């Protein structure tokens, strides 16, 4: 889209708690990346000695990652970006992605935050049961890691999407019915 708008793409907690002023929210998807619980959270969903697991994006040529694109007021861009820089700390860095907006709205270039391998909190892949055990025991200043996983699974479903990686972990950490 060449309307001069600024966009932010959320694929994790920004789906249910954007916590910044935006003009609209549009479902969107990014091709070639997958959402994975491969980033450690030593603050929001864990502690330095017991980090939780939060999602990041990893390259996967066959994948689609559905999320939300937020159109923001350009006059507030500096304030919003600074707030996101503070929130998305602990190994996350800014990235610009091409987001295909739902409803035939075209493509937007959007700011997002990605935790790449090599950052001090990157955990990488692990067996599902090991990730579930880590998630069940982790808690940080933003709440339990279980809450993060379950809220993410709910938010992804609300988009009308399915993410097998998120669903499998949510199924493992959900309290018994």
In a few lines, what is going on in this structure?
The protein has 4 helices and 7 strands; from the N terminus they run E-E-E-H-E-E-H-E-E-H-H.
SSE inventory with pairings:
Elements: E1 6-10, E2 24-41, E3 52-72, H1 77-87, E4 92-101, E5 106-115, H2 128-137, E6 139-140, E7 143-144, H3 145-158, H4 164-173
Parallel strand pairs: 1-5
Antiparallel strand pairs: 1-3, 2-3, 2-4, 4-5, 6-7
Protein traits:
38% strand, alpha+beta, Hypothetical upf0131 protein ytfp, two-stranded antiparallel ribbon, 177 residues, globular, 5-stranded mixed barrel, single chain
How would you describe what is shown here?
This protein has 177 residues and is an alpha+beta fold. The protein has a single domain (6-171), classed as Hypothetical upf0131 protein ytfp. It has four helices and seven strands. The strands form two sheets. Strands 1-3-2-4-5 form a five-stranded mixed barrel. Strands 6-7 form a two-stranded antiparallel sheet. Strand 6 and strand 7 form a beta hairpin. The mean pLDDT is 95.
pLDDT averaged over residues: 95
Name of the top-level CATH class:
Alpha Beta
Indicate the structural class.
alpha+beta
Tally of helical runs: 4
Q: First CA to last CA: what distance?
A: 45 Å
CATH topology: Hypothetical upf0131 protein ytfp
Helix content: 25-40%
Question: In total, how many domains does the architecture comprise?
Answer: 1
Anisotropy-based shape: globular
Radius of gyration: 16 Å
Low-confidence stretches: none
The string of secondary-structure elements, in order, is: EEEHEEHEEHH
- Biggest beta-sheet profile: 5 strands, mixed, barrel
| CATH superfamily descriptor | Gamma-glutamyl cyclotransferase-like
């Amino acid at each position: 889209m060449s309307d001069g708008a600024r966009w932010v793409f959320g694929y994790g907690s920004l789906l249910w708690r954007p916590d910044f002023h935006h003009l609209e929210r549009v479902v969107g998807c990014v091709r070639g990346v997958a959402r994975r619980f491969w980033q450690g959270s030593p603050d929001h969903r864990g502690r330095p000695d017991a980090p939780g697991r939060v999602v990041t994006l990893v390259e996967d040529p066959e994948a689609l990652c559905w999320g939300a694109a937020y159109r923001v007021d350009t006059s507030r861009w500096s304030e919003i970006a600074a707030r996101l820089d503070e929130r998305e700390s602990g190994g996350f860095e800014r990235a610009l992605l091409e987001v295909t907006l739902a409803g035939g709205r075209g493509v937007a270039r959007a700011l997002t935050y990605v935790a790449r391998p090599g950052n001090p909190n990157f955990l990488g892949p692990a067996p599902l049961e090991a990730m579930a055990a880590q998630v069940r025991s982790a808690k940080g200043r933003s709440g339990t890691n279980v809450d993060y996983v379950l809220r993410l699974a709910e938010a992804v479903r609300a988009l009308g999407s399915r993410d097998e990686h998120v669903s499998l972990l949510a199924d493992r950490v959900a309290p018994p019915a």
